[in-house]
Amino acid sequence: MFSLFKRKKQPLHVEDIKPVEDFSDAQKLIEYFKNETGIDFSNKKEIVKNKLILFCKKREIYTFDELYGKIKTYNSLKQELIDYLAVNETYFFRETPQIEDMINKAKKLGFKVEILCAPSSSGEEPYTIAMMMLEAGFKAFDFHIVGIDISKSIISKAQNAIYNQRSLHRVDASLREKYFTQDGDKFTLKDIVKNQVSFRCTNIFDESLHQLRKFDFIFSRNMMIYFDHDTKIKAKNRLQKLLKRADEQIYFGHADMVS
């Protein structure tokens, strides 16, 4: 008779069964990311693996194989992953001697100067070049800068041109006042600089790179450090084809080591 009071087992619904997680091997994703962007994470596998796990869990993706299949199917998710992993912290007025060298050469050209920044990151480098060009006496119609990056979110940040104190820690006080509008702890770049730079979300290994115009000078700093030797050479050759003059040098970062 006591069996009458026993609780009946409720049937399990399919939606109640949580899929089995499998985040054991990220190698296929790391290799895919390298093939797509050139960025080599082989010496940071555990760090990247942990970041990929967080990326998956926030999107209710339960295995690396599932993520791999989805980024090959959905371009929007692939772009989210690129934005997530391709983070490059930068700041204004970084490695200015190279910019000064370019400006000295630009003064001798006698025509509108076209400059490429690849990658542009969140805009600090191309905007620094623009400020230094203006300070050197160039007028707005004398030059234009194009910044490219593989991250849509970082391009959006560059276009908004709103920065914090950390990004401006090397900007002279007089230049802050001249080229930025401060609102609390945020600094918005003025149009006199913003209008000199345009941005595009472009991967240097995509065919879309060839849709860009030719440039007098190219800056590609702190990108090659993420590439292996063969990828560095490939990237250098692709950028070289964007120069108006084959004998002009590309300005690489001191840590990029391109030979």
What is this entry, summarized?
The chain has 259 residues and is α/β, with parallel strands linked by helices. It is built from 10 helices and 8 strands.
Question: SS-based structural class?
Answer: alpha/beta
Total count of domains: 2
Strand percentage lies at: 5-15%
Largest sheet: 5 strands, parallel
Could you tell me the CATH topology label of the largest domain: Rossmann fold
User: Can you identify the CATH class of the largest domain?
Assistant: Alpha Beta
Quaternary form: single chain
Radius of gyration: 24 Å
Mean pLDDT: 89
Enumerate the strands of the largest sheet in spatial order, edge to edge or round the barrel.
6-2-1-7-8
Looking at this protein, list some descriptive labels.
5-stranded parallel beta sheet; globular; 259 residues; 2 domains; 39% helix; single chain; alpha/beta; Rossmann fold; 10 helices
Architecture overview:
The protein has 259 residues and is an alpha/beta fold. 39% of the residues lie in helices and 14% in strands. It is built from 10 helices and 8 strands. It has helices spanning 27-37, 45-58, 64-73, 75-85, 96-106, 124-135, 152-160, 173-179, 191-194, 229-240; strands at 113-117, 143-149, 162-164, 180-183, 186-189, 197-201, 217-220, 250-252. Strand 1 (113-117), helix 6 (124-135) and strand 2 form a beta-alpha-beta unit. Helix 3 (64-73) packs across helix 4. The chain is globular and about 65 Å long. The N and C termini lie far apart (87 Å). 31% of the residues are buried. The mean pLDDT is 89.
